[in-house]
Structure to design on (835 residues):
């Protein structure tokens, strides 16, 4: 895996935390930041928290270092502090001025971050391994609000070395700046424990959500805990703290009123030549209440209002409670469990990591997949006490961005359905449960806490139809036909809504205006959304057949849909859109759409509805076919025409430089000399004056899905070029390699990268038939990771033979199929190997 050095470290922030539990990040230099523990993002929250080392020589002299590499200069004059804390006032309160290690490197092997530090004046080799538990198929242990920081010191000299390690934290749980005058300083406590300290913020009368705890512990016989810091004005606190660190002073004190500004835990140690010592800082947090309530509410007078816009109006109603608050009663309980199970949790995480990286696939592919697994650890994901997932699309700096487990965005995400299939199924339960009304209309944004929601806005065609395809995927992943049977009627209601709303004449295409992931409506049939329709009809047909249902109508409509795509929407090179606004059931009101703007009216009269793509070559143009392939449906469209479309995407939309590309939309995702895959281009002209919004942008989620789809058709070099472009932009110098953003940090769509595994190798396990499918896209010789609903391991393919080596659980494989053709039957005993 790539090792980052020097200025490649500047933008790195690597999430630590459980799924739906909040996070903090270890940055490229080893600094701890992005503290987002309060069930909401707080991306630039960088409290004064640091580890330090003091080395004492035989003469009593000492040298001390913060155990971090040099501070990136981007932080020096781009601080986000307010008042006297900001960059313009010299960064009051930051510890950037304390001596640090001279250099360091950073390597990620998900879920582990590994850093190595060097300093000519420190006679020890120093490293840090940071992680939080991530164990496929074990969603609870992977949802803990906890992380481990393992500092290892090795004496490679010929002399004994005496040193003192310390972990130090100001009380960053203090939310005084957030809750105003009601807060009283004396209410905040730093509690000393025998093994560490707890930073606390009690709840207040009007803000119960303010309650929060951060517990830092070091289980070492020599550990000393100091929660009796010197307190004072100006820079007194940090000055006196550093005086103690620099002198190697060890204090074991507790403030009589627990009113210390912060806490420290120090461990003195000696190392003989060749000896090593690892000191583990275990961190756990507990914020059991939130202000989060999202969705539509009915007011007392019967009218509807959105609590997204007026949160105070919903203050007396239930709000989100994180999963861990239903499992644990306190930070002490979290820490007790984490400490007691630490070695098991670490082993489980390490086993997954070792198995995942036990692959000979191109490094850029493994890098792209692993980088986006961090999304599951970010504040993008929330988890209720009932275990169900609710998620944002991504994270703004201090709030979630675009709420409601948005079905058309999460269409792309392929990681959770394989690594944590039960949690993925919880999204389907919400979509076809609380989010769907009696007419089959789905609200594509779920309420939080999850509950029945409003149905006054458009359904999203790609999201709602994609949900049916994903139901088929979940069936093939888990193998539970009874689960599908329990939801079949709701799926049928959903599909019937789609037919009568967007294809009332049952032509096989979505002709009526249909909302989609680009936050607009397409008027007239298009390849992108109609391919979802084709896939949903195929999925319902197959699920219905398995249940003994009469699916003749769906089968016939699927055939018409496939034919419509090929005869009406394929232009000989790629699939496009036939824009239509006349002779539809939905009226197109020029006066309403133009909003009395004369210029806009003239444009609409000439070109029709705004925000279409018409003759454009869209990178998402056969997206439904990709999702169908990922879901085990196989080829739902003409394979040669789909491949032709993918060739056109690469030929027209992939740019090795964007210097000549005009993007009046959001340029931050790719700009200047950077390479990237445009969402759309118009190689034959006829670009609308106002094409669909975002059309000139570059999104990593779409790059990943297009690349994985290309791989399926043998376009491996083209796909690798796209993936190299993505990772080239996220290189640590310009952007965080572990935060592929779109409409927010850690954007869910980027988890399309997990599909690269299947795209490149063709490897897929079908739990219904207990069949392992393998392909020869990668030359027919490879090792790759596979996770099923019952176990995970490594699949090897060589010289026309395949084998499964199960690392955890079991995989009941009866048959192996090469390129959709049965090669041989696998004996049951060999297929049920246990790790």
């Amino acid at each position: 895996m790539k090792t980052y050095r020097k200025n490649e470290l500047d933008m790195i922030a690597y999430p630590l935390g459980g799924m739906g539990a909040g996070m903090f990040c270890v940055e490229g230099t080893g600094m701890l930041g992005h503290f987002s523990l309060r069930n909401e993002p707080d991306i630039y929250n960088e409290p004064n928290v640091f580890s330090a080392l003091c080395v004492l020589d035989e003469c009593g002299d000492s040298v001390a270092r913060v155990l971090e590499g040099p501070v990136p200069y981007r932080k020096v004059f781009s601080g986000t502090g307010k008042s006297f804390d900001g960059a313009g006032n010299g960064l009051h309160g930051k510890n950037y001025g304390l001596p640090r290690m001279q250099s360091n490197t950073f390597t990620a092997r998900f879920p582990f971050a590994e850093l190595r530090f060097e300093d000519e004046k420190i006679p020890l080799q120093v490293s840090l391994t940071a992680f939080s538990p991530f164990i496929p198929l074990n969603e609870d242990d992977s949802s803990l609000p906890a992380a481990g920081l393992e500092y290892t010191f090795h004496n490679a000299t010929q002399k004994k070395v005496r040193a003192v390690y310390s972990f130090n934290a100001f009380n960053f749980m203090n939310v005084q700046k957030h809750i105003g005058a009601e807060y009283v300083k004396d209410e905040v406590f730093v509690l000393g424990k025998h093994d560490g300290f707890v930073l606390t913020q009690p709840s207040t009368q009007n803000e119960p959500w303010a309650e929060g705890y951060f517990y830092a512990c070091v289980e070492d016989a020599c550990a000393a805990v100091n929660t009796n810091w010197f307190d004072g004005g100006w820079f007194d606190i940090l000055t006196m703290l550093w005086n103690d660190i620099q002198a190697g002073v060890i204090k074991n004190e507790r403030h009589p009123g627990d009113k210390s500004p912060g806490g420290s835990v120090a461990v003195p140690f000696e190392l003989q030549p060749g000896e090593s010592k690892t000191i583990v800082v275990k961190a756990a947090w507990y914020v059991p209440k939130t202000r989060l309530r999202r969705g539509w509410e009915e007011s007392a007078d019967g009218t509807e209002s959105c609590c997204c816009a007026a949160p105070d109006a919903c203050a007396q109603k239930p709000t989100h409670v994180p999963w861990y608050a239903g499992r644990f009663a306190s930070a002490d309980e979290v820490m007790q469990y984490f400490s007691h199970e630490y070695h098991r949790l670490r082993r489980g995480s390490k086993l997954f990591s070792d198995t995942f990286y036990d692959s000979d696939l191109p490094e850029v592919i493994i890098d792209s997949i692993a980088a986006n697994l961090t999304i599951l650890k970010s504040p993008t994901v929330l988890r209720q006490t009932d275990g169900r997932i609710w998620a944002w699309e991504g994270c703004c700096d201090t709030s979630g961005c675009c709420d409601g487990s948005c079905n058309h965005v999460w269409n792309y995400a392929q990681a959770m359905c394989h690594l944590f299939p039960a949690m993925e199924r919880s999204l389907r339960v919400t979509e076809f449960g609380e989010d769907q009304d009696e007419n089959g209309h789905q609200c594509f944004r779920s309420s939080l806490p999850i509950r029945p929601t409003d149905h006054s806005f458009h359904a999203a065609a790609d999201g709602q139809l994609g949900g049916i395809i994903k139901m088929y995927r979940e069936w093939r992943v888990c193998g539970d036909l009874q689960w599908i049977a329990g939801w079949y009627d709701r799926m049928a209601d959903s599909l019937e809504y789609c037919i009568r709303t967007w294809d009332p004449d049952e032509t096989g295409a979505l002709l009526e205006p249909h909302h989609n992931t680009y936050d607009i409506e397409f008027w007239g049939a298009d390849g992108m959304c109609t391919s979802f329709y084709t896939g949903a009809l195929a999925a319902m047909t197959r699920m219905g057949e398995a249940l003994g249902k009469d699916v003749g109508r769906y089968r016939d409509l699927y055939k018409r849909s496939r034919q419509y795509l090929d005869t009406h929407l394929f232009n000989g090179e790629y699939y496009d859109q036939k824009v239509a606004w006349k002779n539809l059931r939905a009226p197109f009101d020029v006066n309403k759409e133009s909003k009395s703007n004369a210029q806009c009216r003239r444009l609409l009269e000439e070109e029709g509805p705004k925000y279409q793509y018409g003759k454009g070559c869209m990178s998402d143009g056969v997206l439904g076919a990709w999702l169908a392939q990922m879901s085990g449906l196989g080829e739902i469209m003409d394979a040669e025409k789909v491949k032709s479309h993918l060739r056109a995407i690469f030929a027209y939309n992939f740019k090795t430089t964007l210097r000549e590309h005009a993007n009046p939309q959001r340029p931050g995702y790719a700009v200047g000399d950077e390479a990237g895959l445009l969402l759309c281009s118009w190689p034959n002209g006829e670009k609308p004056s106002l094409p669909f919004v975002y059309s000139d942008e570059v999104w990593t989620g779409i790059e990943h899905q297009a690349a994985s789809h290309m791989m399926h058709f043998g376009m491996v070099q083209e796909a690798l070029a796209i993936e190299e472009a993505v990772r080239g932009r996220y290189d640590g110098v310009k952007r965080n390699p572990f935060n592929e953003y779109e409409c927010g940090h850690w954007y869910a769509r980027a988890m399309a990268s997990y599909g690269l595994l299947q795209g490149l190798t063709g490897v897929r396990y079908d739990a219904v038939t207990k069949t392992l499918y393998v392909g020869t896209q990668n030359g027919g010789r490879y090792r790759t990771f596979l996770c099923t609903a019952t176990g995970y391991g490594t699949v090897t393919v060589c010289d026309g033979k395949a084998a499964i080596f199960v690392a955890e659980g079991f995989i009941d494989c009866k048959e192996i199929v090469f390129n959709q053709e049965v090669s041989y039957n696998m004996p049951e005993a060999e297929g049920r190997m246990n790790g």
